[in-house]
UniProtKB/TrEMBL annotation:
This is Methyltransferase domain-containing protein. Gene3D superfamilies: Vaccinia Virus protein VP39. Residues 1-25 are annotated as: Disordered. Transmembrane segments: none annotated. InterPro entries: Methyltransf_25, SAM-dependent_MTases_sf. It comes from Diversispora epigaea. Residues 84-175 form the Methyltransferase domain. Signal peptide: none annotated. Residues 1-18 have a biased composition (Low complexity).
Length: 306
């Protein structure tokens, strides 16, 4: 619910951000820029090429779901002083759109890397650089709504319950938690795509990441014990021609994902670079022609008033 003690709108007061960049925030491998946080397994780079891919991915997801969020929070977002947290906010695609649509709400984007614009941003957005695998720098019961999307490459398999606990801790009683994930391994694939995605499976295994996470979110929410009205929604990100340009855009986004993960995918499978590039071109055609798709799940719930 909105913070009832905050009667005055904070619309004109820019929120402080902690996302100014330092050299030590990044490390560079083969010309690509990566995060520099010890013990964090997230393998994607965070340079301009990857941030562009994240923006494109945001538009794909918004199109597939026909909205930016699923939890019943629209009325909260229209109240003065409502506080929203976007965990693993990346380039800030979601938070910028939401902050423009809901100017009375205060949005905080949290990420391990200071990759979001620090100057040109809506006044009701601030960014905090922090690791969601640690205790978050917020008091108990701070946020009215917490959103987290696409962290399957970030959170080790056995840490999801801890993260859900920590997000629930900083959520206000009566507030909503919403997580959205995708199965990185498409279904209905052709032979070359199947081969190529074995590399993804191996990389996930080596990094202790969980491709099955979309299917487990609901039971993790149930196990948390303080979340109620748990709702799960499923959808598909289609690669095939049946959805017109959406399929082509999804194939292009997946292809870029492969290019950006190439160093780690080659490491995981020992296939040579030329074979990988060749298979990538064939796979892009196959994903479209076979009408492959990825399962995407969204789970949301309300924190009980205990
Ligand atoms: C695939 S991107 C998703 C970005 C955004 N949620 C979206 O949907 O557009 C994953 C983001 O999680 C961030 N990340 C990875 N590990 C993290 C961690 N342990 N704590 C906080 N953020 C993390 C990465 O830096 C990256 O920006």
């Amino acid at each position: 619910m909105g913070n009832k003690t905050s009667k005055t709108s904070k619309k004109s007061t820019p929120l402080p951000s902690t996302n100014t960049q330092e050299d030590s925030d990044f490390r560079y491998i083969e010309g690509r820029r990566y995060h520099n946080v010890e013990n964090v397994k997230y393998p994607l780079p965070n340079d301009d090429e990857e941030l562009d891919r994240l923006h494109q991915q945001h538009f794909l997801f918004r199109y597939v779901w026909q909205r930016n969020f699923a939890a019943p929070v629209k009325h909260i977002l229209n109240q003065d002083g409502t506080k929203v947290l976007d965990v693993g906010c990346g380039a800030g695609s979601w938070i910028f759109e939401m902050a423009s649509n809901y100017p009375n709400t205060q949005f905080t984007g949290l990420d391990i890397s200071p990759i979001q614009p620090s100057e040109i941003k809506p006044k009701n957005v601030n960014f905090v650089i922090s690791n969601v695998l640690n205790r978050l720098p917020f008091e108990n019961d701070t946020f009215d709504y917490i959103f987290q999307r696409l962290l399957f490459l970030a959170l080790p398999k056995d840490r999801w319950p801890d993260v859900i606990n920590e997000l629930t801790r900083v959520l206000k009683p009566g507030g909503y938690l919403e997580l959205m994930e995708i199965n990185p391994i498409p279904l209905q694939m052709g032979p070359v795509s199947s081969q190529l995605f074995i590399a993804v499976e191996k990389m996930l295994q080596l990094r202790d990441l969980d491709p099955q996470i979309p299917y487990k979110l609901r039971s993790y929410f149930e196990q948390q014990g303080n979340l109620e009205n748990i709702t799960e929604e499923k959808n598909r990100l289609p690669f095939g021609p049946e959805t017109g340009k959406l399929g082509q855009a999804a194939v292009e986004n997946a292809r870029l994902g492969f290019v950006h993960l190439k160093t780690y995918l080659l490491e995981a499978t020992k296939i040579i670079s030329e074979e990988f590039d060749n298979n990538l071109d064939i796979s892009a055609k196959e994903l479209y022609e076979f009408g492959s798709y990825q399962d995407t799940y969204c789970v949301y719930a309300r924190k009980g008033n205990y």
